[in-house]
Amino acid sequence: xxxxxxxxxxxxxxxxxxxxxxxxxxxxxxxxxxxxxxxxxxxxxxxxxxxxxxxxxxxxxxxxxxxxxxxxxxxxxxxxxxxxxxxxxxxxxxxxxxxxxxxxxxxxxxxxxxxxxxxxxxxxxxxxxxxxxxxxxxxxxxxxxxxxxxxxxxxxxxxxxxxxxxxxxxxxxxxxxxxxxxxxxxxxxxxxxxxxxxxxxxxxxxxxxxxxxxxxxxxxxxxxxxxxxxxxxxxxxxxxxxxxxxxxxxxxxxxxxxxxxxxxxxxxxxxxxxxxxxxxxxxxxxxxxxxxxxxxxxxxxxxxxxxxxxxxxxxxxxxxxxxxxxxxxxxxxxxxxxxxxxxxxxxxxxxxxxxxxxxxxxxxxxxxxxxxxxxxxxxxxxxxxxxxxxxxxxxxxxxxxxxxxxxxxxxxxxxxxxxxxxxxxxxxxxxxxxxxxxxxxxxxxxxxxxxxxxxxxxxxxxxxxxxxxxxxxxxxxxxxxxxxxxxxxxxxxxxxxxxxxxxxxxxxxxxxxxxxxxxxxxxxxxxxxxxxxxxxxxxxxxxxxxxxxxxxxxxxxxxxxxxxxxxxxxxxxxxxxxxxxxxxxxxxxxxxxxxxxxxxxxxxxxxxxxxxxxxxxxxxxxxxxxxxxxxxxxxxxxxxxxxxxxxxxxxxxxxxxxxxxxxxxxxxxxxxxxxxxxxxxxxxxxxxxxxx
Length: 692
Prior knowledge:
Elements: H1 3-13, H2 18-28, H3 33-43, H4 49-61, H5 68-75, H6 82-95, H7 100-106, H8 112-125, H9 131-136, H10 143-156, H11 162-170, H12 176-188, H13 199-202, H14 208-215, H15 223-233, H16 238-254, H17 259-270, H18 276-280, H19 287-300, H20 306-312, H21 319-329, H22 331-340, H23 346-356, H24 362-371, H25 377-390, H26 396-407, H27 415-429, H28 434-448, H29 453-466, H30 472-478, H31 484-496, H32 504-509, H33 515-525, H34 533-538, H35 546-563, H36 568-578, H37 583-596, H38 599-604, H39 614-627, H40 630-634, H41 645-657, H42 664-673, H43 677-691
């Protein structure tokens, strides 16, 4: 790099615009390490976090040696610029073990803040090589350093460090923060500690919750630990109670032989405890606490907790855990929902319907059938889905009736409900009793004649989803329906029937007057096992509607892909011709070439280089990048100067990914004139990859 470029970088690093400074940091990577290091270290203190982040990335990726680690460690003592200091910690943690020697040396610094930061950094690196020194730092004169050391030992230590941590907990008179950190470290390491060794901590209210966390890893059958935790559930301290609950859940999860006995002991011991305030916490606690409480209430299986768990589960992040807990409650939950149904809001009712899919009781079944007539469509949809999940054959008439009602609405506000009803009927058609399938088909068939178009369309869609080979005559009859939408649904149904062969009915659909039906027929033929599949699809290559031609190209690619080598040459010929067609057809063709996945297909994609539509050129580049041989990839090089920035970025990235070293001069020339920031970043990454 010449002096002019160095001067340009230095000027940009001082620019008032943070984006210019950030891009200058990227350009610093082109300098030698000796030149780049002082500039990057200076950027660690930049006012902009984006600039600092860019400097961290460069320093983290710098080679070992050259004073990088030592410079970063020195930056930890910069008490005037916390941004620089924190960025140095991040960079050191990213560099890993290469920074251990200067970091370990700095643990003996006279500056307490430096020692604390070094310990935090060692925790971030997580190397066992630092463990001996961290154990020594448990005796550091400063309590904050001792606490940080205990945390770090918990992060990177093994069970062999337990005695040292227990000594911190047991010595008494120490700063509670240090003992608290040691207890958390023991819990993180899942160390088995007898309750007797935690007596001192259990007597200190501030430490008791952390001590409960350690007891959550007690040996199986440790009744003393269980009894202590059960007393903790009854404590007036909210933090202590919640820590005890979490520890008990952990013991249950780890219990291999007597898990049911432990659960029964917990249920018995807590039966007389008023946990209403804990239930109220489901409305206000943080996510992690609510998760623990919901799991605990599910384990207790008390009807009084069903509604609090249900309401707590309306938070999407907790829904699955709540549903699992409610399933454990079974019929208790069903009775609770039934008794409180009118008091539940729409969201809670919807979740209750989902829970009833897992309970299986008669009260729940009756509630779901009733919910099909709820005012809110989301609740009705949830009820339908749950009836399908439960395999409730008795629900078939009500579901079909509801399907008719929703399909007949002028406005499709019930679109989700319609989909849910369809899925429910599909599931019910798969139950072991073949009579259920026959009943559904019979009910649907009875309602087709004389029904409005929207209803016929919905019924045809369901028939298509559940149809078996025996139902082909009924589906073929739907191909004569005056509605193009119904005929399209029938074609989609034919694609699911039988063994994927090209039936005569499906072949006739290729000549349907409606383009949407012909498109559906093309997609159906894509999976066909017929020897005539490609021939039938080739007939659509000259269709008057470009949407049909595009669908045909996609189907040809899919058909040829699963038919093997024999189908590839004729498919390639058809697809190559379609590359000169209008935009969406050409795009479908090049995507089909990519699906073929052969070097010949990639070479054919070069035809699109001269097209004016950038998305076509980009698709061709992607095809060549995935399947082209070396010559085809190198032919991409002139496109680094393409007029569209998306194409330039795609080409440059592809050349880098394929290791096209011969393209480096062209890419360097482009860097001199490139104005787009994204493309410049792509160029810099590509050059690092190619030159490396």
